[in-house]
Amino acid sequence: MPTETFFPKLSSVVRIESFPEQLSFIQDGLNNLLDKLYYRDFQFVQSQNGDSNFYSLVLVSHKKLSIDIPGTCLALIFNPGHSGNTSEISEFPIELSYQIPILSYVKGFKLDNFSF
Question: 100 partner at 20 to 30 Å CA-CA among 10, 53, 74, 85?
Fold first, then answer.
């Protein structure tokens, strides 16, 4: 008997409030999207002096993302899951890393107050 695997919602990590105010016109769509996506294998690494960060996670959709090929019994499945019931989920690995060198030289530098 297959067991249901639990994945936390992406909305528990990504908050709508953290998006810039200029994106407020898509706020409802983002809320809807973040509530339907889940994640697993979340990793966060920060350098010792805080000037670089690395994020890694696997986005999980509990709905299989596929396109049926008309006239056949075939379907193109996008990133089928590799854990649990693989025929019912799609997974997308995501990695993000960035480095802000000034943070290693100037302690207490606030990006929020910096004007580009």
Answer: 10
